[in-house]
Batch of 2 targets.
Target 1
Amino acid sequence: MIHQKRKIAIMAAIMSVIGATISFAGNIVIKGSTTVLPIAQKVSEEYMKLYPEVKISLSGGGSGNGMKAIIDGSTDIANSSRFIKDSEVKLALEKGRYPVPFAVAYDCIVPVVHPSNPVKDLTLSQLKAIYKGEVTNWSQVGGGDLKIVVISRDTSSGTYEVWEEKVMSKENVYPGALLQASNGAVHQAVSKNKNAIGYIGLGYLDASVKALTVGNVQGTPESTLDGSFPISRPLYMFTEKWPAGDVANFLNFIIHPEKGQKMIKEIGFVPLY
């Protein structure tokens, strides 16, 4: 079940910026999560076609970096694949900023291996054992006699924090794991290494990696929305105060069922509705 504060954020996304004062001809800066990056890229491209007088600057760097940018005032919108931490709220308030969450989509984190790997399914306990370094050979989980190469995200990643919570039960990934800075980097590393395992957002799946089921449940839009896939989460955009002007209009655009939400579905993420 989604935590109460996440429910509030989702309600905010649906109802929040409707009726905000709109004025155009400005710049919007967006920073943060690499999971949310493809959503922001796609929607920003379409938005700027409709409003060519508005320029959108977009960069990744991870959810943690997005939150830092909100706190220090260097971004208008922070993309995040996890909810804001209490410590980040405290830092923001100390600087006179009041972060506002908007859920923009849903996603699930899918474990992936090289397409040549015969393993099709892992349980949560097996994933945890692999990422703790307790299971080190694919033969221990039904694969070939090959050493497992564990690929994980760095600690500034919201995807890592969700993985740490839902798979690792707050225990650390073992030090031998190879850390990558983005979903794209994990995807590339796994696609080029037949011994590797990694985890990426649903929107990054393609034929160059093999998605594993978790407890025999496939990560799909349907299993994400109904909660049956165990590594699911909402995706957010945060503003440093109640949005107005171009920022409010952009958020209205991304949460509109026939505009941004339709694009989100087209690129492989799960829309809100």
Target 2
Amino acid sequence: MEQKLKGKVAVITGGARGLGRGYALRLSALGADVAIIDRNLSSGDVYEFEAKLRTAESVAVECQQLNVRAIEIQADLTSRESTFTAIEEVLAELGRIDIAVCNAGGGTAQFADEITQADGADAVADLNTRGTPASCDEDVLQRVITTNLNSCMYTCMAVSPHMIKQSSGKIVTVSSTAGLEAGSGYHPYGVAKAAIIHYTRSLAQELGPHNINVNCIAPGIIRTGRLGDRQHLSKYIALRREGTIEDCARVVEFLVTDLSDYVTGKTITIDGGQCNQR
């Protein structure tokens, strides 16, 4: 693979498993040094699908095997202070930040690794939110909004000053088709993801004069360990299959390389034709 990102440093949040791991490996293969930030660097261990995919003891080691520098930082990105501290650690270790992929998030009230730690080894499934627009428990509301929207904004706010100083940068935020099509269920995840799209447009306007591109991806039904096999939903997808981690990683590659130098403030849907965007 062409080393398009040689000499660049990329930050991937939520990078310890799933889509985040896929982005980290893709950018490493393109030559970028990477910093993986996650609330639990061992979170992939509780999902059998994720554990089988990993080829080393951690995602950072997998990236290092691609002949790049790679570090990992455990941090709670729902805390502004922790996020800024993590980004300063990246700068201290790797010297600069050229790319930020704000992947941390999830439509869950409690993640499987948290349940496992609290309730024993037999509990391995995420506790998904059952909130609706008319009725949502406060703890679920706050957890889902902060995990998705706040973590994204804090990451962008932490990396922006450094990208402005160097007059270059690529930021990729992560929304979802849930943020594009309204529904009565899975709230407040869809609200948070819709807000990320608006935030992306606003940030792109602010950072554009500094030669910084800010774009968003909105994955649909993608096969990861956390969400499991959803091939039964393929009848609702134009391409008649669920998406893969690689399907998303290729679009991220486009958005962080020179192929997208004249693209900013946009949201790219990665859903096989499922979502009816107008």
